[in-house]
Design a protein that fits this description.
The complex is a heterodimer. In chain A, about 30% of the residues lie in helices and about 25% in strands. Chain A is built from 13 helices and 18 strands. Chain A has helices at about 75-85, 105-115, 140-145, 160-170, 185, 195-200, 210-225, 235-250, 285-295, 310-315, 330-340, 345-350, 355-360; strands at about 5-10, 15-25, 30-35, 45, 50-55, 55-60, 85-90, 120-125, 150, 175-180, 190-195, 205, 230, 255-260, 300-305, 375-385, 405-415, 420-425. In chain A, strands 1, 2, 3, 4, 5, 16, 17 and 18 form an eight-stranded mixed β-sheet that branches. The longest helix of chain A is centred in the middle third of the chain and has 18 residues, at about 210-225. Chain B is α/β, with parallel strands linked by helices. Chain B contains 13 helices and nine strands. In chain B, the strands form two sheets. In chain B, strands 7-6-5-8-9 form a five-stranded parallel β-sheet. In chain B, strands 2-1-3-4 form a four-stranded parallel β-sheet, with helices on both faces. Classes of the chains: A alpha/beta, B alpha/beta. The interface of A and B includes residues 203, 264, 268 and 313 of A.
Chain lengths: ~425, ~325
C-alpha cells in the first residue's frame, strides 16, 4: 500500500523536524518527508488536518505474560493494546515462565508475535541461567537467536563477581545489559517507599538506598569493565544524581523511567490503594520532580510504560499481598502529552523519550522518519480529550491508577512497516 | 496532578454519612468526640455489675465472627467474652494458613462467611491493610472490627490503653507518655500514637534504638528518643512494647541481654519518670527482656487492669458499630 499522509505536523526530534510536513510511504518504507517524491501515486491519501505525525513509539518494558502467565494476558491480547497506544516496537523482559534463557524461548515469542501481527517485539534474554544470578546464560546463542540485549529482570545478581563477569562477557558479544538498580537485601519484603506514608500505614518500606547502593555498585562495575549498561526504572532523585555524575565522566550508561513514576507519589498509597503498588515504589514529590527534570534535560533518554497487566485477583488482596505493576500501554503517550501540557516537558523532548531515545538505547535504526527507514509511524490527535475506562481498554490488564482520568491527545493511526495496524474507530 | 482515586479513604470507610462508627479499622481519621464516645460507652459497661458482670441483651440475635488469620489468645478471648456479654452468637475461626494453603483467597473466605448471615467480622491478619480490604469488600450490612493488621493498627488495644490512662490520670492534655520498644513493627504503637494525639496528649515520645524506629517517625507527631534516660524523664505514663524474639535474627539487635541492659524497664530507670507514673504493657510480657518483673508486678504497674478494661472497650466498639451502643448508658 502506498500512502500519502497529507497536512500533518511532523515531530521527529532525531531529524530535527517539528513542523507541518507531508509524509509518503511505499513498500513498507518512508519514501519522503516534506518534499513530494517525483511521480508518486498514492493508493490512499489521508488528510491529517494538523494532527501530529510521530515516529512509532518504542517501549522498553512490556510484560506480555506469555509464556507462563496467560491468565493475566497473552501476546494476542497485548499487541493490539500496544498498537492502540501508538507503540510500534516493544521490548519484553526475560522473566516469563519459563524464563527466556534459550534461543527456543526467543523464537517462541517472536513467532507468536508474528502470527498476531502488529507492533514489532524485541526480546531481552536472561543474563544468567534461570535468572538465578549464578551461572552465565549462553549469551552468544541468545544473540544469534535474536535477542536485543540481556537482563536479569527484577531478580538480583547478588554476587558482584558474577555480575562483573556477566558484563564483560556480554560486552565481548556487543550486547547491552539492562539492569534494575534494586539491592535485594535492602528492598527485602518492602512494598512501599520507606518514608512517612509507609510508616503511618505500617507497610514494610523500600529505602532509597536500595536503589542508590545497587546503582553505585553497577556504575563501579561499568567503570571497571567499560561494558554498556542500561539502567531500568530509576525512582529516586539521588539515583538521577549518580547517573548524571557517571554520564559526565563518560561512562557508557543510559537510563529510563516508567511513566507512572512521573505521576505517582507515596501519597497515592493512602487507603491502601493497590493500583498504586509498583516496583520500584512511588516515592516522594521531590523524587518525582527530579525524575521529571532528568527526562526534560535528556539525562534519562527513555520513558517506558513498564506495562504489567494483571488479573483482578492479583490486585484484590491486602496491600502487601498484591502484585506490583500498572497496565500502561494505552496511557504512555497521553501521560507524556499531559506533561507537555503542564510545561514539564517540551514536545520534542517528550517525543524523543518515546522514539529516538529508546532506539539509541537498543542500538536500533528506528525512531526517526528518514527516507528509506521502515515506515513505523504514529498519528496523534492532540486536541481529542478522552477518559480512560476499564471497559474500553484493549489490554487484558485493567490495573491502572489512571482509570477515570481525563486525558488529552489520542492515537488515531499506527503503522508498522507501512502496514496500518491500528485506526481509531470513529476517528477521522 | 494526583490521579483521581475512587478508593475510599480510611475515615470515610469507617464512618457512616452522619459520622457514626461503621467499621473500626484504625484510630487515624476518627474525630476526638468519637474516641471519647467510645471511652464513655466503655465506662458504662465497666460499671455494670461489679465482679460478676451480667449479660446485656444489646446484640441478641447478632452473629459475630472472630476471623483470626494470625494466632492470638488474649485478644481473641476478650473479643469473645465481650460479644457474649452483649448476648451475641460468636463463631471463632482460627484460619491461620489453612485456607491459603487450600488456595482459597481472602475474598472467597469472606463470601463464604457472609453467606452464613453474619453481622460482624473481628479480623486479625498479618498484613497491613487487611481490615480495610475486608471492610471495602464486605456486604453493606456487615461491620468490621480490626483486631490487628500487620504493623498498621490495633485500635481496640489502643482504646483500652486510653481507657486505662483516663481512669488513672483523668485528662490527657498535661500528660507526657513514653512508648518504649519495637515501634517499627508495632501496630499497637501506631494506634496508641494516633489515639494519644487525637485526645490532646501534651507530649508523646517513642523510645527505641534506631533499628526499631520507623522512617520519619516524627511525622506522626511524636518525639523520638534513642536514649531511654532522656526518653523516660518526667514521664507520666510508660508503655512498654513486647520485643519479638525473631528480631535478633533480622539483625535489629545483638541480643535480648543487651536490649534489657540498654532499654529494659528496671526500678532504677523507672525513677527517672514522675513519682506517680503508671507502667503499661499490651502483653504478653517478656520478663527480663523489656521489663523487670519487679516493675511489671510492682505498685506502678496497671498491666492487669488493662486486660480487664479490654472487655468493656470491646463491648463499646462492637455495640456502637452495630448501631446500638449509644443506648447503653
Amino acid at each position: 500500500m502506498r500512502w500519502h499522509l497529507q497536512g500533518g505536523h511532523v515531530i521527529d526530534p532525531a531529524c530535527g523536524r517539528d513542523g507541518p510536513a507531508d509524509v509518503w510511504i511505499a513498500d513498507g518504507h518512508i519514501v519522503a518527508v516534506g518534499t513530494a517524491p517525483p511521480e508518486f501515486t498514492a493508493d490512499r491519501t489521508l488528510a491529517l488536518d494538523g494532527r501530529l505525525v510521530l515516529p512509532g513509539l518504542i517501549d522498553l518494558a512490556v510484560r506480555l505474560r506469555e509464556p507462563g502467565q496467560e491468565h493475566k494476558a497473552t501476546i494476542a491480547s497485548e499487541l493490539p493494546a500496544a498498537a492502540a497506544g501508538g507503540i510500534t516496537t516493544l521490548v519484553c523482559p526475560p522473566d516469563t515462565q519459563p524464563v527466556v534463557d534459550s534461543p527456543a524461548q526467543i523464537e517462541y515469542i517472536q513467532r507468536s508475535a508474528a502470527a498476531v501481527g502488529g507492533p514489532r517485539v524485541e526480546v531481552l534474554a536472561a543474563l544468567t541461567v534461570g535468572l538465578e544470578g549464578t551461572a552465565l546464560a549462553e549469551m552468544a546463542a541468545l544473540r544469534d537467536g535474536g535477542c536485543i540485549g540481556l537482563s536479569n529482570g527484577l531478580r538480583p545478581v547478588a554476587n558482584t563477581l558474577v555480575l562483573r563477569r556477566a558484563l564483560e562477557y556480554a560486552d565481548t558479544l556487543g550486547l547491552t545489559v539492562h539492569l534494575h538498580p534494586l539491592d535485594p537485601h535492602l528492598a527485602a519484603d518492602g512494598c512501599a517507599h520507606e518514608g512517612a506514608v509507609a510508616t503511618r500505614l505500617g507497610l514494610p518500606g523500600i529505602p532509597r538506598a536500595a536503589e542508590t547502593a545497587a546503582l553505585a555498585q553497577i556504575l563501579a562495575l561499568v567503570e571497571q569493565t567499560g561494558a554498556r549498561v542500561h539502567i531500568c526504572r530509576l525512582s529516586t532523585a539521588r539515583g538521577a544524581h549518580l547517573l548524571a555524575q557517571a554520564r559526565a565522566e563518560g561512562l557508557p550508561v543510559s537510563a529510563d523511567v516508567a511513566v507512572h513514576q512521573l505521576f505517582l507519589t507515596e501519597d497515592d498509597l493512602e487507603g491502601f490503594d493497590a493500583r498504586c503498588h509498583v516496583l520500584p515504589p512511588a516515592r516522594t514529590a521531590a523524587d518525582r520532580a527530579a525524575l521529571r527534570e532528568a527526562v526534560a534535560s535528556g539525562l534519562v533518554q527513555a520513558v517506558c510504560s513498564d506495562h504489567q497487566p494483571h488479573d483482578e485477583d492479583a490486585k484484590t488482596a491486602p496491600f502487601p499481598q498484591t502484585e506490583p505493576g500498572v497496565s500502561g500501554l494505552e496511557t504512555l503517550l497521553a501521560l507524556m502529552l499531559e506533561l507537555v501540557g503542564q510545561g514539564v516537558l517540551d514536545r520534542p523532548t517528550a517525543v524523543a523519550a518515546l522514539t529516538g531515545g529508546p532506539a539509541t538505547v537498543l542500538g536500533l535504526d528506528r525512531g526517526a522518519l528518514r527516507p528509506g527507514a521502515p515506515a513505523d509511524l504514529t498519528v496523534v490527535d492532540p486536541d481529542t480529550t478522552w477518559t480512560l475506562e476499564a471497559q474500553n481498554m484493549r489490554s487484558r490488564g485493567r490495573n491502572t491508577p489512571f482509570l477515570g482520568r481525563r486525558l488529552r491527545g489520542r492515537v488515531t493511526h499506527t503503522w508498522v512497516a507501512g502496514t496500518l495496524v491500528y485506526a481509531l474507530e470513529g476517528g477521522r | 496532578m494526583k490521579p483521581q482515586s475512587p478508593v475510599a479513604r480510611p475515615a470515610s470507610l469507617q464512618l457512616t454519612p452522619d459520622g457514626r462508627l461503621r467499621h473500626f479499622l484504625s484510630i487515624e481519621g476518627l474525630p476526638r468526640a468519637l474516641l471519647e464516645q467510645i471511652l464513655d460507652t466503655a465506662e458504662s459497661f465497666a460499671n455494670l455489675g461489679g465482679p460478676a458482670v451480667k449479660k446485656v441483651p444489646l446484640l441478641r440475635g447478632k452473629t459475630i465472627v472472630n476471623l483470626f488469620f494470625e494466632a492470638s489468645t488474649r485478644t481473641r478471648t476478650t473479643f469473645e467474652l465481650a460479644a457474649k456479654r452483649l448476648s451475641a452468637d460468636v463463631l471463632n475461626l482460627n484460619i491461620g494458613a489453612a485456607a491459603t494453603v487450600k488456595g482459597e483467597t481472602l475474598l472467597d473466605t469472606l463470601r463464604n462467611l457472609e453467606a452464613m448471615h453474619t453481622d460482624m467480622f473481628v479480623v486479625r491478619h498479618a498484613d497491613s491493610g487487611a481490615a480495610h480490604f475486608i471492610a471495602r469488600h464486605a456486604a453493606p450490612h456487615v461491620r468490621v472490627i480490626n483486631a490487628g493488621d500487620g504493623r498498621h493498627a490495633h485500635p481496640t488495644q489502643a482504646m483500652l490503653d486510653m481507657f486505662t490512662i483516663r481512669r488513672v490520670k483523668g485528662a490527657f492534655e498535661p500528660l507526657c507518655v513514653a512508648i518504649v520498644g519495637d515501634i517499627l513493627h508495632s501496630r499497637v504503637a501506631r494506634s496508641q500514637i494516633h489515639a494519644l494525639k487525637t485526645l490532646g496528649t501534651g507530649c508523646v515520645r517513642v523510645v527505641a534504638p534506631r533499628t526499631l524506629l520507623p522512617a520519619e517517625v516524627e511525622t506522626l507527631g511524636v518525639e523520638a528518643h534513642v536514649d531511654p534516660e532522656t526518653g523516660l524523664e518526667e514521664a507520666d505514663v510508660i508503655i512498654m512494647l513486647r520485643l519479638q524474639r525473631e528480631r535478633m535474627k533480622g539483625a535489629f539487635l545483638p541480643s535480648e541481654h543487651e536490649y534489657f541492659q540498654r532499654f529494659g524497664l528496671t526500678e532504677e530507670r523507672l525513677r527517672r519518670a514522675r513519682p506517680d507514673v503508671i507502667v503499661m504493657h499490651p502483653g504478653p510480657i517478656n520478663r527480663g527482656v523489656e521489663i523487670d518483673s519487679r516493675v511489671a508486678d510492682g505498685p506502678r504497674s496497671v498491666i492487669l487492669r488493662q486486660v480487664t478494661y479490654g472487655i468493656a472497650v470491646r463491648m463499646a466498639v462492637m455495640s456502637m458499630a452495630l448501631g446500638t451502643g449509644t443506648d447503653a448508658s
